[in-house]
Amino acid sequence: MTQRHKFRKSMHRAAGPAIAVMVVLAMIGYIIFGPTGLYAWGDYGQSVEKQRVILSELTKRQTELQNRVNLLDRRRVDPDLAEEYVREKLGAYHPDEVIIPMEPEAKR
């Protein structure tokens, strides 16, 4: 056998394992660096924390709104809240009252 023939034969033998190693390395890279890989878990953790903060704010707002709904129950309406709504919606104010308009954000 010539030197060239030996080289070709050894290259053909090594091609299968080399391709297998490259495929395994690509899979490992995808596991680590892919969109759902190990590095993405850190981003998911931060995203979950942000969503928890938003959820707590929305839960607080929902509780406030539920309290206002309970105060406006037809069977037992809170007189102060009902007066506030009527005055706001109908513009029913006394002539000697001073009205100070507020931004919607400042009302909370």
What report would you give on this structure?
The protein has 108 residues and is mainly α. It has helices at 3-33, 38-71, 79-90, 104-107. The chain contains four helices and no strands. The mean pLDDT is 82.
Task: Report how far apart the termini are.
Answer: 91 Å
User: Largest sheet, described in full?
Assistant: none
- Average pLDDT confidence is 82
Percentage of β-strand residues: under 5%
Unreliable residue runs: none
Shape: rod-shaped
Task: From the structure above, extract its key features.
108 residues; mainly alpha; 75% helix
Q: Layout of SSEs?
A:
Elements (H helix, E strand, L loop, with lengths): L2 H31 L4 H34 L7 H12 L13 H4 L1
Question: Gist?
Answer:
By secondary structure, this protein is mainly α. It is 75% helix and 0% strand.
